[in-house]
Amino acid sequence: MAITGADSLMLANSPHGDLPMVRRLEAVGFRAWPAASVVYDGSWQVRLTGGHPSKRLNCVVPLDPSDYHDADIRLEKARKKFAHYGRQLVIRETPLSPRPLIDRLDEAGWVCIETVSVMTADLAAIDFSETLAHLPTHDIGRFIDASLAVHGADPAIKPAMAEIVSAIKPTTGLFLMENPGEGPAAVTICVQDNDLAGIQDLAVAEERRGQGLGTEILAAALRWARISGARVAWLQVGETNKAAIALYQRFGFREAYQYHYWRKDETA
């Protein structure tokens, strides 16, 4: 039997990730959470979004392990571009990043400020028999208001969030749980990109945690993705978010690879 791209995602065992698998997950990740401005310096993707503070939307992502030439000059060029947006330069290190570049950052006083796990799960192996079905909403404004409320985020980023969600090109399901008069309780976004489905922005309101809502809304999104034709689900979660990781592991998610954010230590 031929091995599909989705099958290869499930077969990768390297702790650093299988590079073709990493490239594919990085590509779908960019499409699932698009930055407002994306330019390339060689194979380095420079991502900037003026109205939203997310590091995923405001970072430089080197995408070729051999592309390290003129690194100091390119870093300074990127620093100036980020400064124009009022942001400090952030480098996102994946298994595709040149090792000499990361060593250079370390030697120059940069620090790793966050580690994120990219996880995948086989949708065919998930049992949805005891979970409830929820249909996604098509009301982007209503969903964004709910997302901001659940996250406790600054309402000022609403226009940027609307731009991001509206710019997602693959088929997208916006999932929202709320009770009349009680406000939004949980949200998530599921982006189906051919046979892959990405879970984004999953959150439960602080006062509603511990009631199974995370399980319910994640199951609803994954069920929708499987019915829509996806075979493998993926997501990204900070390594310190133990509660979320435990939830994802119950659905069969396992780590495919990690990535790291680096920033210059301005106090050094």
UniProtKB/TrEMBL annotation:
<dbReference type="InterPro" id="IPR056935">
    <property type="entry name" value="Rv0428c-like_C"/>
</dbReference>
<keyword id="KW-0808">Transferase</keyword>
<dbReference type="InterPro" id="IPR000182">
    <property type="entry name" value="GNAT_dom"/>
</dbReference>
<protein>
    <submittedName>
        <fullName>GNAT family N-acetyltransferase</fullName>
    </submittedName>
</protein>
<dbReference type="InterPro" id="IPR050680">
    <property type="entry name" value="YpeA/RimI_acetyltransf"/>
</dbReference>
<dbReference type="GO" id="GO:0016747">
    <property type="term" value="F:acyltransferase activity, transferring groups other than amino-acyl groups"/>
</dbReference>
<dbReference type="InterPro" id="IPR016181">
    <property type="entry name" value="Acyl_CoA_acyltransferase"/>
</dbReference>
<feature type="domain" description="N-acetyltransferase">
    <location>
        <begin position="130"/>
        <end position="268"/>
    </location>
</feature>
<dbReference type="Pfam" id="PF24553">
    <property type="entry name" value="Rv0428c_C"/>
</dbReference>
<keyword id="KW-0012">Acyltransferase</keyword>
